[in-house]
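testing teh design pipeline on a random one, pls ignore if ur not involved
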């Protein structure tokens, strides 16, 4: 496993977290693409050896991925709550984001 590829993946996660914190959709889309590219790069290196430095970096990346997941879940919940409030104001229950009204 290339430490460079893992470093790129770690940096991509950090940039994604910053984009999530700024709530900038255009920046977020770019960062998701960066992350996707970094993941592809790591995959292209195949299996990785259980080396100390590689393991430590992988653990840091796992923590970053968890931090990003928590932010996404938080933002999803806020959006759901906003849709519910809009539905309440309109006197209608909030419909699912991807459903069609009957």
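output:
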């Amino acid at each position: 496993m290339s430490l460079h590829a893992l470093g790129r993946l770690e940096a991509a996660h950090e940039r994604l977290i910053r984009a999530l914190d700024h709530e900038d959709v255009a920046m977020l889309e770019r960062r998701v693409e960066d992350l996707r590219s970094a993941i592809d790069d790591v995959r292209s290196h195949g299996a990785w050896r259980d080396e100390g430095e590689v393991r430590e970096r992988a653990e840091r990346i796992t923590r970053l991925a968890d931090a990003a997941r928590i932010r996404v879940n938080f933002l999803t919940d806020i959006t759901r709550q906003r849709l519910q409030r809009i539905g309440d104001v309109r006197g209608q229950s909030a419909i699912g984001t991807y459903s069609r009204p009957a």
